[in-house]
């Protein structure tokens, strides 16, 4: 494709992937099939877009950069397969792309400066999604996939794993991008969970518990959750008030959240 070179724009957090080995591993993880609802966020210069489109019959791309959207619309090999939506993915209603009886596959090389709020936005659409694959800052993937007891375990861990099973796919060095970022990257695979009603908790309450817990993560539960529950109440939930937040499991946080929701409902009535 003979098009003028596009200079990466710092305000959009653009770092374009060019390593063919990494690209192929990502495409294999996505496993695009004909007839699927495939959505790419931030296609950029089309490094992942092209091989995915080769394996399927249609692909929707969401691109904020007007110049890159126009560039893709003129792509001689892709234009007929692409639906290009030039908008901000953080404000986009992904439910508008849903089809009866089908779930979406969403993927992309996300701008690292907006990755966490964008993930939280996407989590709202989990019932409509089969899986997601994203290139992110390595540190973010480590936090998303962390196990209890690790230093990386925190609010992002709990909120991610409440919605999805999170699995690391591949680590990627700065040299795989142009321009090269100053951090290492990694790809994460997210599989939305179908939680039974007994495990569901209002998201704003779970988020409140996480904010209280990890705002002072070196303190014990007795101290950092003191605004929400007494030591005796924590013990009634089979929790040790002397533990630190990162020692709890995601299920422990869900249990606290469900208890707190019940408490708030009782006060309201």
TrEMBL record:
GO terms for cellular component: cytosol. Keywords: Cytoplasm, Methyltransferase, RNA-binding, rRNA processing, S-adenosyl-L-methionine, Transferase. InterPro entries: KsgA/Erm, rRNA_Ade_diMease-like_C, rRNA_Ade_Mease_Trfase_CS, rRNA_Ade_methylase_Trfase_N, rRNA_adenine_dimethylase, SAM-dependent_MTases_sf. S-adenosyl-L-methionine binds at residues 15, 17, 42, 63, 88, 109. One of its GO terms (molecular function) is 16S rRNA (adenine(1518)-N(6)/adenine(1519)-N(6))-dimethyltransferase activity. It catalyses: adenosine(1518)/adenosine(1519) in 16S rRNA + 4 S-adenosyl-L-methionine = N(6)-dimethyladenosine(1518)/N(6)-dimethyladenosine(1519) in 16S rRNA + 4 S-adenosyl-L-homocysteine + 4 H(+). The keyword Transferase applies. It is an enzyme of class 2 (transferase). It is found in: Cytoplasm. Its EC number is 2.1.1.182. Gene3D superfamilies: Ribosomal RNA adenine dimethylase-like, domain 2 (1.10.8.100), Vaccinia Virus protein VP39 (3.40.50.150). It comes from the Bacteria. Residues 22-194 form the Ribosomal RNA adenine methylase transferase N-terminal domain. It holds the Pfam family RrnaAD. Belongs to the class I-like SAM-binding methyltransferase superfamily. rRNA adenine N(6)-methyltransferase family. RsmA subfamily. Specifically dimethylates two adjacent adenosines (A1518 and A1519) in the loop of a conserved hairpin near the 3'-end of 16S rRNA in the 30S particle. May play a critical role in biogenesis of 30S subunits. This is Ribosomal RNA small subunit methyltransferase A. The lineage of its organism: Bacteria, Pseudomonadati, Pseudomonadota, Gammaproteobacteria, Alkalimonas.
